[in-house]
Amino acid sequence: MSSLLKQVKNELDPILKNTEKNYVAAFDADGTCWSSDVGRDFFTYEVESQKFNSDSVSWKQFNEIEKNQSIDEALWWVCQIHDGFLEQDVLTWAREALEAYPPQIIEPVHEVIQYLNENNVEVYIVTASVKWAIQPAAHLISVDPTHILGVETQVIDGKITSIRKPPLTWDKGKPEALNKHTGGKPIIFAAGNSFADFPLLESSEGLKLAVHKSEVGTNLELSERRLQAKAKENNWLMLS
Q: What is the pLDDT of residues 125-139, one digit of tens each?
């Protein structure tokens, strides 16, 4: 048993063993449940495998949209480019991407998820990645694939469209999406790694976990350090 799980059990056992409340827990995906970026790897795999009939579908285009418009528009774009594809085909590509780029599970976090499952807490992954990219990886961390909340567009007759399904699961949209999906069930545990996960962590009435696993000197590492600083300031759980 990891030291993280011991801390979680000490705090939550008295609550979960003596309640009739239907609690939920929320975890970011990339950088929180695994140290790699499954969402990014999925798009990289699609581009490398030439799934799109356009050379403009690339990381260069994503970065230009983020720079010239916003990160929100870039996140919607990388989802909407699947317009016209069968949902099942995209899920198949996501499974193939997992084989090409196997994620490294952060085991202490996985232990916490298993503990929450055992105590009848509904566990959700709330990610800014495309939902279909993450769903096939759900079983690796003992999460129900239907509990993956990510960036998505409407699916009509099995085909993905470009019609957005808000809220965008990024920053403040993360707790908004979770509350919308669960009907406002109380959040007993929330975990994330970047500062964009701060609103999700704040939404927990129970424990909050800040994870720091990125490489030194990257933009993500700077974002993680901002979240770590908030965690330290508020006496939240930390994992590095």
A: 999 999 999 999 999
